């Protein structure tokens, strides 16, 4: 599967989250050969749980594992510090980012620490988040800890 | 409540985790006046969920909030990158660490980014983790993403 094919899964998750009334960010964790290990989306609204970002949901869905070096975390949006910390701590080898235009997280920091980072600048992802942020700014700022 | 009183709650959580057969790390999130907002412990073993570290469990238990600047995250062990990222992203104002002897995570990075960090070097916490790591090294390394 090429990068766009991998991103498609994360984007489907983002749309699922939106359909549930949630924050439309999706993610998926893949093995190096393209096998899907886990997929998920932000659940702040749906579960009332601020700890479930898209990446953590996909990571959880993949279950307990001993080694993440050959895995790829695919996410519709640049990973925040929380999710970047997840990638760094567990040694996830690669991150594929749908877009970093509406939010710029920690992916440069990950690249500095040896993670292979690709930013796709995907138009669907940009449009989805742009509309969501315009529609629900308070919810968006809550999700990234911006309180001003 | 003084620092040791705050740490007592996190330590109780670590002991709860140990009694459940889990990894003995506990945490609690407090308001500036010492009000407990949420408490929790690592649940990798109990829930088969690699995404629930002690700090994320306490953060989840505190529910959705708009502003974390005046809160204090108390943890029995130096926060890993995942949990340090949580603190940074959500702007948690202070971190109180039981010990950083058996594991050295991201608390210096947090201090560089304006978080008030205190390391207590608490003997109970050091002894608890030292014994756990000696007893179950494979489980411990799994929890911090060390695969070698």
Structure description:
Two copies of one chain form a homodimer. Chain A is globular, with a radius of gyration of 14 Å. In chain A, 44% of the residues lie in helices and 18% in strands. Chain A is α/β, with parallel strands linked by helices and 148 residues long. Chain A starts with a helix and ends in a 5-residue tail after the last helix. In chain A, strands 2-1-3-4-5 form a five-stranded mixed beta sheet. Chain A has one domain (3-64, 91-144): 3-Layer(aba) Sandwich (Cytidine Deaminase, domain 2), CATH 3.40.140. The longest helix of chain A has 17 residues, at 3-19. Chains A and B meet through helix 3 and helix 4 of A and helix 3 and helix 4 of B.
Short description:
The structure is a homodimer of 148-residue chains. Chain A has 148 residues and is of the alpha/beta class.
Given as residue ranges, the uncertain stretches of chain A (5+ residues, pLDDT < 50) are: none
Distance between the termini of chain A: 42 Å
N-to-C SSE string of chain A, H for helix and E for strand: HEEHHEHEHEHH
Count of discrete domains of chain A: 1
The computed structural class of chain A is alpha/beta
Kindly state the mean pLDDT of chain A as a whole number?
A: 97
Helix coverage percent of chain A = 40-55%
Q: Tell me the CATH superfamily of chain A.
A: Cytidine Deaminase, domain 2
Total strand segments of chain A: 5
Q: Give the overall silhouette of chain A.
A: globular
Subcellular location (chains A, B): Cytoplasm
GO molecular function (chains A, B): diaminohydroxyphosphoribosylaminopyrimidine deaminase activity; metal ion binding
Protein name (chains A, B): Nucleoside deaminase
Main location (chains A, B): cytoplasm
């Amino acid at each position: 599967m090429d990068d766009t094919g991998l991103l498609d899964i994360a984007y489907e998750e983002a749309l699922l989250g939106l359909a549930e009334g949630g924050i439309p960010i999706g993610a998926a964790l893949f093995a190096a050969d393209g096998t899907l290990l886990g997929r998920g989306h932000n659940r702040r609204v749906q579960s009332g749980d601020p700890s479930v970002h898209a990446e953590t949901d996909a990571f959880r869905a993949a279950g307990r594992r001993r080694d993440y070096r050959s895995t790829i975390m695919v996410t519709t949006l640049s990973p925040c510090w929380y999710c970047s910390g997840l990638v760094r701590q567990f040694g996830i080898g690669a991150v594929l980012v749908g877009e970093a235009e509406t939010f710029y997280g920690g992916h440069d920091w990950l690249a500095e620490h040896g993670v292979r980072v690709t930013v796709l600048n995907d138009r669907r992802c940009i449009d989805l988040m742009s509309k969501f942020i315009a529609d629900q700014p308070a919810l968006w700022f809550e999700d990234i800890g911006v309180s001003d």
